[in-house]
Amino acid sequence: MFQASGDPQWFGELFARHRRRVYCSCRGFFCDGATAEDAVQDTFIHAFQNIHSFLGGSFGGWLMRIAKNVCIDNWRKRRSETDLDEADLDNTAKTAPLERMFQLHTAVETLRAEMKALPCEQRRCLELKIDGYSYEETAARTGLSIEAVKSHLQNGRRMLWSKMEGTLSQLR
Question: What span, in angstroms and rounded, lies between the C-alpha atoms of 87 and 78?
Answer without folding.
Answer: 14
